[in-house]
Amino acid sequence: MERFAALLDALVYTRSRNAKLKLLADYLRDTPDPDRGWALAALTDGLDFPAVKSATIRNLMSERVDPVLWTLSRDYVGDSAETASLLWPESGEAPSPPTVSEAVDQLSRMTRANVMAELPKLLDRLDANGRYALLKLATGAMRIGISARLGKTAFAQAFDVAVEDVEEHWHGQEPPYTELFAWAAHGAAPPDTENRPLFRPFMLAHPLEEAEVDLSEFAAEWKWDGIRVQVVRAGGETRVYSRSGDDISGTFPEITRALDVDAVLDGELLVRGSHQGGETGGAASFNALQQRLGRKTVSKKMLAELPAFVRLYDALIVEGADLRGLPWSARRKRLEALAGDLDPDRFDVSQIIEAEDFAALAALRERARDDAIEGVMLKRRDSPYLAGRKTGLWYKWKRDPLLIDCVLMYAQRGSGKRSSFYSDYTFGCWDGDPDAGADLLPVGKAYFGFTDEELKWLDKYVRNHTVDRFGPVRETDKSLVFEVAFDSVHASKRHKSGLAMRFPRISRIRADKPAHEADRIEALRALVRD
Amino acid sequence: MPRDFSWIRPEPWGVHVVPADCWIDPSRPVDRALVTHGHADHARGGHGKTMATPETLAIMKLRYGTDEGALPVAYGETLKLPGGVSATWIPAGHVLGSAQILLEHAGERIVVTGDFKRRPDPTCAPFAVTPCDVLITEATFGLPVFRHPSAEQEISKILSTLVANPERCVLVGAYALGKAQRVIAELRRAGHRDVIWMHGAMEKMCRLYEDHGVDLGELRLVSDAKKEALRGSVVIAPPSALNDRWSRRLPDPVTAMASGWMRVRQRARQRMVELPLVISDHADWDELTQTVIDVDPGETWITHGREEAMLRWCQLNQRRAKALALVGYEDEDD
């Protein structure tokens, strides 16, 4: 556990990706099984101990620390596990830290009934840094910038194997990944992945910044506003995976049931409707899809009212043939041929936009807002299907955002590295004429869109313009105008304003603009396209 | 009936001693200022008369270039002020010359701690517990998560980093007044005899400490060094220089920062620190609460810092307390 705790701290204080990779790779190389596998799973968010949740930490601390002091401390530190590790009363005995696998073993045997008695025993064996590492490992909320992808890259670097091979063999493997280590470190045969419906890493796009591309080299498609999914069928089983590789098959049974060909397909999950792209577009708004997301069980009514389908973008594997090395144009042909055999209620192919040249495409994209389409995708016709975001192959060209001037109302401290900054902003529009005494109505919340320098400035502004405080939240004097950019706005019963913005971010700080000149709520309401 | 101590009035820009018309650590120019210590947020320039310890006045002279109106008062010496008020400067253990100020009037005793700490510091006189009716205490680290480890333990991290990285240097960010000299003195105490390289902004303050009898060993300016000579050495610089262009002249520095804030990981990350050193010149939570217990005042007034948690602790321990809202005290670099 000491080595793991030291690794965790070193990762916290290391900024450069290469230095992080080296730290991780060294650890993976030098640490024995199964500790290294458990550590890797913990770092890449793969461990789950049902009895230990962040509420467990709070409950544990409420027996030991005054609740007000706990809350003040937690708000300041910005992280429950770290706060608890610092506030935990020292046992007074010399630390006798468990190994990572010993800790994992004990954590996994804890139950809700005994966790309050068992977890303290482990904590008592550790110092503050060890307690931090244990609690992080137990609750799975690492937040230290180690993505699954970085973990796999470090793994590849540690044992000098190709990261694509690591990705390929990874899915379907369970911590502590002993077979995977045996393959990479000791040259054993890779884990068997034939005939299993495994997730394959997605190919992603870069934003197109102020550049033009030649349409003879690039094909254009609409960028549909749903969620990117991968539908996989192998060995008689079908799975639907989200972009992060989460299995969402149960949430969309109509899709899972519909695929009857062994294949790995990439597409956009959408709900039937006429919002995006009009009647011919055939897709409802993201809002409609959102009502289907995150459900463990789906009612018949839901299935009837909000039927889902997948608009296919690409084919990775079809009937055992791996197409990923082929150019996009060849894969596209294969996809179009395959689509004819699929259930048309559940699958269609994303249309290619015919445009003479880039200027013509730009004009089409301009008009896309009326059709509620997010933007355009540009894919190099000769691009292979590669995991991750590769420069020069795929671009997303979102339509320009909508803008509105809002007034800062509340600010909340961020978490993680922003824990000392007021970095989450709630802003509002005027509910009538501000000069006639109208109030502001909150319309949204944003925590990005500004630079680090601007964040410092904003933090200071909030501190100097506070009129009231509610725990980690400050109410400001409503004097600062933000130009807020957002992709779309929808009617919402959940918000007092009756509106919900999609993807709002701070576009500009308008310190020059008086608050009463900010927009009224009608201006925002007029942009609703539900 | 509780007394109201109306002869002393906390205002946003300082503590006003009404009958004497003096201000303690005022953040704007006044006719008569009583100053606890030399940090810029407590010792502003431009007052008519400035009463402080000789060390503090020397620091202020170095900072502001003048000692006009300076009135030195040694530790333990009592100054008669107008309006039947007397003031005594008592060591606070924060930095060289730092003092608590004991005010007496009409049989009532009020102690203003200024900034203080309770742990041993080779560069200044130790804090002395002074009984009083009202304790006006700082609370910079007034949250129970702040428990500073021993300075020895933190200093040993510098030394082991030097050993592990002979090709690099350890660049320690430390506040130019107090923290820098303490880190140097603690390194010497731990047996580190090599040259310690300093940023130009620290030179005068280090010399001032030496003039007051604090032995800092051999110090040299980074600007006089060849890059090669800095490998395997300790370099000390103000926090603002850590990620500044200045540090580019150093051989692949391990960036360290000596500050109580380093206890919280994300604070260290914000400062781009690789080697956080929890070394503070302020009392930690245990020292703050122990001081209230030791001094055992009738009332505790809490200022600059995280007042809410200290206030809560006082409530939980049945101690009368209130929070003062003083502005102008920000100690981000400690």
TrEMBL record, chain A:
UniProt name for this protein: DNA ligase (ATP)
Q: Which reaction does it catalyse?
A: ATP + (deoxyribonucleotide)n-3'-hydroxyl + 5'-phospho-(deoxyribonucleotide)m = (deoxyribonucleotide)n+m + AMP + diphosphate
Q: Does the keyword Metal-binding apply?
A: yes
Q: Which Gene Ontology molecular function entries are recorded, alphabetically?
A: ligase activity
What keywords tag this UniProt record? ATP-binding, Cell cycle, Cell division, DNA damage, DNA recombination, DNA repair, DNA replication, Ligase, Magnesium, Metal-binding, Nucleotide-binding
Q: Which PROSITE patterns match?
A: DNA_LIGASE_A1 (PS00697), DNA_LIGASE_A3 (PS50160)
E.C. code: 6.5.1.1
The first-level EC class reads: ligase
- Keyword ATP-binding among UniProt keywords: yes
Q: Which NCBIfam families match?
A: DNA_lig_bact, PRK09247.1
* Pfam family membership, one: DNA_ligase_A_M
Annotated ATP-dependent DNA ligase family profile domain residues = 301-431
